[in-house]
Write a structure and sequence with these properties.
The complex is a heterodimer of chains A (332) and B (500). Helices cover 39% and strands 17% of the residues of chain A. By secondary structure, chain A is α/β, with parallel strands linked by helices. The longest helix of chain A is centred in the N-terminal third of the chain and has 21 residues. About 5% of the residues of chain A have low confidence. With 500 residues, chain B is of the alpha+beta class. Chain B has a 5-stranded mixed β-sheet with strand order 2-4-5-7-6. Chain B has a two-stranded antiparallel ribbon with strand order 1-3. In chain B, a hairpin with a 3-residue loop joins strand 4 and strand 5. In chain B, helix 1 packs antiparallel against helix 2 and helix 6 runs antiparallel to helix 7. The two termini of chain B are 98 Å apart. About 1% of the residues of chain B have low confidence. Chains A and B meet through helix 1, helix 2, helix 9 and helix 11 of A and helix 1 and helix 2 of B.
Amino acid sequence: MNMGFLISLLLLILQGTSSVAGQSPAAPGKTKWRIAVLMWHESPNDIAALDGLKRGLKAMDMGEGLVELRAKGNEVNAKKLLVQAKKKGVDLFVALGTKSAKIIQAWEKKIPIVFTAVTNPVLSDITSSWAGSKNNIAGNSNWLDRKEMLRAFRLALPSLKNLLVIKSPGNSVSSAEIAEAKKAMLALPSLVLTELEIRDARTVGKTLGKNLAGVDAIWIPIDFPLYQEAALSQIVQEAGRKRIPIFSSTLRCAGRGAIVVSAVDYQLLGLKASALVRDILVHGVNPGSIPIGRMKSFRLFVDLGAARRINLKLPFELILGAHRLFGAEVKK
Amino acid sequence: MSSKPTSMAQRFYLFLFLFFVVGVVAWGFLAVRTSVEEQRRGTSSFLAESREHVSQILASTASGQARLMDQAVQQLSANLEREFEDIPFDVFEGRDDLLLDFLVERLEKGRLRNEENSQVIAGLFRQESIDLGRREFDALESAQTAAGEVLAKSLQRDLLLWGGAFLAGIGVLIGLVFHRGVVLPLSAATQVIESMGAGDLAQRIPESESEEINKLALTFNKMADEIASQHRNLEERVEQKTAELRDSLSEQKRTNETLRATVDQLESTQAQLVESEKMAALGTMAKGMAHEFNNILGGISGLAEDLAQDVEDEDSKQALAVIQKTSRRALVITENLLRFSRGTPHSKSQVDLGEVVEQSAALLEPEASKRRIEIKLKQRSLSPIVTDGRGLQQVFLNLLINALHASEDGVFIEIEMMETEQHQTVSIRDHGRGIPQGDLARIFEPFFSTKAQEDGPGGTGLGLSVARGIVEKIGGTLAVKSGGVGLGSEFLVQIPKEES
């Protein structure tokens, strides 16, 4: 890393932000805001996004009224928490992840809602368009250019033709991801994507074992039941037995058996969401007019150990582009 | 050859020794020289290749490192650039301290992570470089091994080539010496032996340079001298014995010729005696029988004639006519017997043999016409001769009767006449049943007949016997030819010509 280059860049940015801060109008009147954040589950993505959100709100002196609503994967619990929060008074709801966004969007139609870390809000019926919701909801997506993701998979496995993607029934996140991937595959005609629905994540290994004939690689999308430790270990074991590489688009799989994981920086997503909160609450911007935000950057997590276990030699091009490397055996 | 002959074995052993010594020295010299030269060449080639490979490895490693570094910088720059684009800096408006904390924290995390990644990448690159070097050196080793094999083969080929040429040369040399010392003297000796075998005992084996061959030549020549001496003695004795045998054989030959002439004469005399006795006995028997039968037949014939004048009915007349006819035929037979027994009287006169033949044929013409048999007479004017005309007419009649009897109805009989200075010959040829080959020798014997007992004078078996007797009495010959049964017969009557 060229530290000189980074420090110069940093100084330039700091100079720029100082001038913007000077021009920014302060919100008239109200300075204390009650912001309720619904976290569907304690996923690393949501935790990172929450961290980014909190940092942003703190920087804008809006963090004091932040209330964390942890649903722990329970919809009833989520609604109950939302109702309680609303009773106490809420200026804005923040939804972390697709599930949270769907619950709040279905329940609250007046109070502004900001969502973050939603893969595809349009396909998930959270907003009608990427250009804006035209109602009380705005947000950003962890949308990742799936073409880039598939290219990264193919870079790891040049012979990749038949990619098997597993998903839970009715999971809107993984469904949205797969739909995006299918669109991206139009540019990669030699790649075939096969879907396998896992009805019971507890027996995912057995189900997977029966469907691996002719499969070159397995893709684990952002599908909460499937990247839980119990299910993930079965998948890794079954794939390892047949020497089939695992790729994933969820950070949860990084360093846990997936050779390549492609994901966005969820902390930045949360940070960007805090800017939306400010725009709506402080600047009075109509949430329905705000285009859904997308990330430009993405990160690759490469597990050298997992690749080594199935005798897959990864190209330097992929390794050099990795945000983080796992499972390295450094010989000195 | 004035020089003293030497031992062939000694020369051979000397050659072998020289061959061994020269061969070992030459082989060793070649092997060492080629080996050193090839080794020098191989080492030089190996060093050159090694230098090239090491250069390639270094170049590859250096370029790989540079390429990877370049890639790494590009990737990091691109990632960082994109991340900075994603950072909402306005959130930190007026809170530079927090922004700084945020960025420093991210940079610090990134630095630590990149340090870890760099270590991993450096390790991987080191490993890759080691693998590359190993691959290159493996390739070099393979190339060196292959080159070594090529060199070894080259060395082997050179040694084989030079060694082979050397051996071939030595072989030719030994062959020449062997040819001169052994083959040529033996060939000369063989020629001498073959000449001696062909009878030339004067040949001798020439002296040779080889002691062994020379000894052989001397021994052989001595033996040849003895053989020649014995041969001369033997020839003299053979010549003497041959002369004695030649004399003895001449005398023996003369004695044999005398004996053969005596035997022939005796055989002829014996045959004549047998024939004479046989004919005399037959004549006596025939004469007695003929007289008796003639008297009886005369009585039968006279009585039948008288009775024929007295009887009236036709049946009796026909019966008596048959008796008369039969009696006359019987009289003819007895007449023949009497003629045979007496012998035909030899009355010579000037005769035109053609006329005699024509008259005989005319006598038998009615019988021939009745059976539609044509008697073709190739008439030729013959000079008159003095002979037994009547006897010859009987001869021709007998022969023509036989021909008629032998022929089928509707055929023809040919009569031809020929004349030479000494003879006149008449040929009577029929196309009838012919004569079996086994019967040809007996055809002229009295009472021998090939015919069944039929009517006519020939039926007694005396016709040809009588005819032959007549012809032989006038100094002629009667011969017969037949192709066999079914192929007809030809009788040739040859009559000597006498001054008229």
